[in-house]
Design goal:
Layout (H helix, E strand, L loop, with lengths): L1 H13 L1 H58 L2 H12 L4 E8 L3 E6 L7 E11 L3 E12 L1 H50 L17 H5 L1 H38 L4 E6 L4 E4 L1 H7 L3 H4 L11 H21 L2 E8 L5 E12 L5 E10 L1 H15 L9 H18 L2 E9 L2 H8 L1 H17 L6 E6 L2 E9 L3 H13 L4 E3 L2 E3 L3 E8 L6 H17 L5 E3 L4 H18 L5 E10 L5 E12 L3 E3 L1 H11 L2 H23 L4 E6 L1 H4 L4 H11 L7 E6 H5 L3 H13 L2 E7 L7 H5 L4 E4 L1 H5 L5 H16 L3 E4 L5 H9 L4 E2 L10 H11 L5
Parallel strand pairs: 15-16, 18-20, 20-21, 21-22, 22-23, 23-24, 24-25
Antiparallel strand pairs: 1-2, 1-4, 3-4, 5-6, 5-9, 7-8, 8-9, 10-12, 10-15, 11-12, 13-14, 17-18, 17-25, 18-19
The protein binds ligand C2E and magnesium ion (MG) (2 copies).
Length: 805
């Protein structure tokens, strides 16, 4: 019994639906069975009872006349037999025969505790008349019927119970097999179901038949799997969306522009890393604040309020605001930002947030300002530059035209500036320019303009003059301010200026020719011996015109092959043996004749023409050296002068290399003469180029030694081989003791630095003897030979040197 109950409870917990189904089937089928059985039993019972009634009626009909007759006849025996016959009939248990008037015969017993049925019928004799003889009361017992009823109930109930039970169990098993176990599978699948195992479909353990495929379980399974697929798609979509969002958020976070996102009330919700980096704020300090109210500076807050009001209105109206904002960092430091403000709209198009993109443009701004300054002002002196000066001149002329006044224009050029710049270095040159501009400015009134046109050229504009002489007075004052020496580092230098003056409207009525005229007058001042001012006169135009003409001729000289090289021998002082020659350029112009280098080299330097000219010289000199070797089989070196500008040209080393290669000349046959000025320019490039040339094997010499301010330490640190004593020292060695002593000292010093010495400008034998005595290695000068053309030089070698070798 207990086993059954545990099984039942197991069944109940493992398949509650089946259990309930079983319970209900049992309950309802039992109820129906009971009701049906009850009806059946009742109807049987009714039928049995009516059978008893029927039987009694039969007795009445069949026995009433015979009994009446027996009673009429008073046949007691027959009556007895008849009554016994009736009593033997089924269910009849008692007979009571009342014989009128007062006797009675009773047969049988009425059983106790048993339902009975009685029926009384009259016994009448029908003769001519009807005689009431008595009545017979028959009692039938219903016991048999009830026993039958009980038995029937037991049998029917038992049979119905087992039938119902077994059918229910069968139904449950069928239900369990076809439905419940699949429901359990679905339940456990649903229980296990998660985003992690979306790939696993729901499948039921049953054959795949068409009937199965159509039923509800299949529909549920399919619905499940469709749901899983949809979920799978959704998850995939969500993943894609998430990675997209992640990407976008990383892009915003790592954006090189600062990004702020505000809510619709302009409260900051998000700021990216760049914003914090740019402004120095941290997240807590700005969250929820208005982007224009981040600093506590009340002035900027007021300013910002107006600005952000405008921004808000424009974003509302136009949809975007773009502009430059002078923002403040946390530290209070201001910086320029290029800002774009746009709304972020929802799907309905109404703004939910605002996006503020910012880019630090401080550098650009500074650069712009610088450019603006550079475009109008000279960087070194801070004075207006040529452009601004011309503008101001035009303004001054326009004003003078209206007011009928005069305008004085002064063109200033510092004397010897180039020399100081070359010898003392650019820094000293710069300082000199700054000081000069200060001195010029100090001589002027407020309305006047002083501008730097470039190099050492200045322009002074004196507007609104009544008298032309006042310009000259200013010029005089300027010349005077140049009288005291300029302090350049430890050194004092005297620098003067030459001034050319042109007056509007006397000398010209337009700005450009006024400037040209002032320039021409300035050249005239230079010619007059510098430190002077000269008022423009019409004939001066020709002079400046000439300079321009030379320049344009020089530009074409290379093309027209007007240059030639002359060669001056260099000999060993002791023996007079020829060791090489210096190449010296000449310009043979058809209209100007033979032009010496002093006349055009500075111009070539100024205009940059020295670069192609220098290249030509090196090539030509190497070609000559090669020719000498062929013609004389002497291995002669060739010295070539290199100007500073040429030396700093980036292609210079390659030019030298190429010239040597083209003419198969050994590098040690080439000596590059570099003026002392260059050495003073202590830049890394200078050192580097000298090292490169030295590494190639080319010899390097210091030209015009003694004329610059060269610090001797340079001789030690640069790879020079030779030192050329300037001819100005040699000229007077026999007359000036000082010069003689200096030359001796130079020779000793050079030797102590392992440098060889060449004396330039040796014109007399005494000088040669002096140099010999003091062990000067080599000599060069008219005493040996003047610079001559290549053909003459070869001839000279043949005559003077070939027989010696
Ligand atoms: P430098 O290199 O010092 O050349 C020597 C100058 O002294 C030459 O003048 C030469 O004719 C002159 N000279 C030679 N011996 C005597 C003498 O005994 N007495 C006198 N009084 N002078 C003598 P030149 O040819 O007029 O050259 C002048 C300067 O022009 C040269 O000075 C050199 O610095 C430059 N130069 C010449 N040719 C070139 C060239 O091809 N390239 C560059 N960059 N400069 C050159
Ligand atoms: Mg030279
Ligand atoms: Mg020289």
């Amino acid at each position: 019994m207990t086993k059954l109950s545990t099984r039942l409870s197991q069944f109940r917990s493992s398949s509650p639906l089946s259990f309930r189904l079983l319970a209900y089937i049992l309950l309802f089928s039992s109820l129906f069975t009971l009701a049906a059985s009850a009806i059946q039993i009742y109807s049987d019972f009714r039928r049995d009872v009516s059978l008893v009634d029927e039987r009694m009626s039969v007795i009445e009909t069949s026995y009433s006349s015979s009994l009446s007759r027996s009673l009429w006849a008073l046949d007691q025996k027959l009556l007895q037999v008849q009554m016994e016959g009736i009593l033997s009939l089924p269910d009849i248990v008692h007979l009571r025969l009342k014989i009128f008037p007062d006797s009675e015969v009773i047969m049988g017993n009425i059983p106790r505790q048993t339902s009975t049925k009685t029926r009384t019928f009259p016994l009448n004799y029908r003769g001519d008349e009807v005689y009431e003889l008595g009545t017979l009361t028959i009692t039938a017992s219903l016991e048999d019927i009830f026993r039958d009823l009980r038995r029937k109930i037991i049998v029917i109930l038992t049979v119905q119970f087992f039938k119902t039970f077994f059918i229910s169990v069968l139904i449950i098993l069928i239900f369990q097999h076809f439905v419940a176990r699949h429901l359990s599978t679905m339940a456990s699948y649903a229980r296990r179901f998660s985003l992690q195992n979306l790939e696993e479909p729901l499948s039921l353990d049953r054959p795949d038949t068409p009937a199965n495929r159509r039923d509800e379980l299949s529909q549920v399974t399919e619905a499940f799997n469709q749901m899983r697929e949809r979920l799978n798609d959704d998850v995939r979509q969500q993943k894609d969306d998430a990675s997209e969002i992640q990407k976008l958020s990383m892009a915003i976070e790592q954006s090189p522009s600062s990004v702020l996102i505000c809510d619709r009330h302009w409260h900051i919700e998000f700021a990216n890393h760049k914003f914090f980096q740019l402004t120095g704020f941290n997240s807590e300090e700005i969250k929820g604040k208005h982007p224009g109210m981040l600093t506590s500076d009340s002035f900027s807050q007021r300013e910002n309020q107006q600005l952000w009001q405008n921004i808000r209105l424009q974003v509302q109206r136009v949809g975007v605001w773009q502009g430059e904002i002078n923002s403040a960092r946390r530290s209070g430091e201001r910086f320029w930002e290029q800002v774009i403000v746009t709304p972020i709209k929802d799907s309905k198009g109404s703004p939910t947030h605002f996006l503020i993109l910012g880019e630090d443009i401080s550098i650009r701004k500074r650069y712009e300002q610088q450019l603006l300054r550079q475009a109008n002002y000279d960087v070194l002196t801070g004075l207006p530059n040529r452009m601004l000066a011309l503008d101001r001149l035009k303004l001054a002329l326009a004003q003078a035209r209206r007011e009928e006044t005069l305008v004085g224009v002064m063109f200033l050029d510092l004397d010897n500036f180039k020399h100081i710049n070359d010898t003392m270095g650019h820094e000293a040159g710069d300082n000199l320019l700054i000081e000069a501009s200060r001195r010029i400015s100090s001589c002027l009134r407020g309305t006047s303009t002083v501008a730097r046109l470039g190099g050492d050229e200045f322009l002074v504009i004196l507007p609104g003059l009544k008298d032309p002489l006042s310009t000259e007075q200013v010029a005089e004052r300027i010349l005077q301010t140049f009288t005291p020496p300029f302090q350049l580092g430890p050194q004092e230098v005297f620098v003067s200026t030459s001034i050319g003056i042109a007056i509007y409207p006397t000398d010209s009525d337009n700005s450009s020719s006024l400037l040209q005229n002032a320039d021409a007058a300035m050249y005239q001042a230079k010619r007059q011996g510098k430190s002077a001012f000269v008022r423009y006169a019409p004939k001066m135009k020709d002079v400046s015109h000439e300079r321009l003409q030379i320049e344009s001729r020089l530009r074409r000289a290379l093309e027209l092959d007007e240059f030639e090289l002359h060669f001056q021998p260099i000999v060993e002082t002791d023996s007079g043996r020829l060791i090489g020659a210096e190449a010296l350029i000449r310009w043979n112009n058809p209209s100007m004749g033979m032009v010496m280098p002093d006349k055009f080299i500075p111009l070539a330097e100024e205009t940059g023409l020295i670069i192609p000219i220098g290249e030509w010289v090196i090539g030509e000199a190497c070609a000559a050296a090669w020719e000498w070797k062929q013609a004389t089989s002497l291995s002669l070196s060739i010295a070539v002068n290199v100007s500073p500008r040429q030396f700093r040209d980036p292609g210079f080393v390659d030019i030298v290399k190429q010239a040597l290669d083209t003419h198969s000349l050994s590098p040690d046959c080439l000596e590059l003469e570099i003026t002392e000025h260059l050495i003073l320019d202590n830049t890394i490039e200078t050192a580097d180029i000298l090292q490169q040339l030295d590494a190639m094997g080319v010899r390097l010499s210091v030209d015009d030694f003694g004329t610059g301010y060269s610090a001797l330490s340079y001789l030690k640190s640069y790879p020079f081989d030779t030192l050329k004593i300037d001819k100005s020292f040699i000229r007077d060695i026999m007359i000036e003791e000082g010069d003689a002593a200096l030359v001796k000292a130079i020779i000793n010093m050079a030797h102590s630095l392992s440098l060889e010495v060449i004396a330039e400008g040796v014109e007399e034998s005494d000088q040669s003897l002096f140099l010999k005595e003091h062990h000067c290695d080599y000599s060069q000068g008219y005493f040996y030979n003047r610079p001559v053309s290549n053909a003459d030089f070869l001839e000279w070698i043949r005559v003077n040197h070939l027989e010696q070798h």
